[in-house]
Amino acid sequence: MTPALLPVPEACSRNLDSVLKDPLDPGTEAEIHLRICRACAEARVAFLAQEDAPQALAPAGYFERLPDRVLRKLPARPSLRHRMRPFAWAAAAALLMAVGTGAFWAGRANRTPYVEATLPRQPETVETSVYDTPFHDREEDAAEVQSLTPEEMKALLKRLDSSQSSPQ
Question: Rounded distance, CA 51 to CA 84, Å?
Fold first, then answer.
């Protein structure tokens, strides 16, 4: 063992020896010293805390009867069936049905349709496109007109004059 780091006075070492022998009854001389010396009194308390005390025995069946004893001590509460009479249950059910039905019909009356059926709009002036093919280049039309013979050119002009005069 290593020697003590701090020297212990002779009276304290005798007191600690007697406390180690019997922490409950160290003797009269030790009792007088314990009243004076605080460190020795704390050492005695530490030794007493380490002392093994026998377990307190419970009577047979104590823990089995414990829930019944606790329930007997609680105040009696009337059941829900006795507090609410059948008439109250019927009134509550009728009220619930009336509110549910009213909410259902109110929701149906104020519901707006998701899709409205309407006829397609007719344009006031129908515009037809001259070009049937998309992304048609106008320079190609001019090139075709230039490649026509004079007789074909006259026929084209007559056709254009007749088509312009007929819609009016």
Answer: 60
CB 30 within 8 A of CB 22: no
**CA atoms of 117 and 80, how far apart (whole Å):** 56
User: What 3 state SS string does 16-60 have?
Assistant: HHHHHHCCCCCCHHHHHHHHHCHHHHHHHHHHHHHCCCCCCCCCC
Q: Each residue of 63-95: b (16+ CB within 10 Å) or e?
A: eeeeeeeeeeeeeeeeeeeeeeeeeeeeeeeee
Tens of pLDDT, residue by residue, the chain (168 residues): 456 577 888 888 888 888 888 878 888 888 899 899 998 998 888 888 876 767 778 888 898 999 999 988 988 776 665 666 788 889 999 999 999 999 888 877 766 767 777 777 776 665 555 555 666 666 676 777 778 888 988 988 888 888 777 655
What is the rounded CA–CA span in Å between residue 151 and residue 168?
27
How far apart, in whole angstroms, are the C-alpha atoms of residue 40 and residue 12?
A: 7
Tokens at 62, concatenated: 């104590």
**Is the CB of residue 62 less than 8 Å from the CB of residue 55?**
no
What is the helix (H) or strand (E) element at residue 115, kind and residue range?
A: none
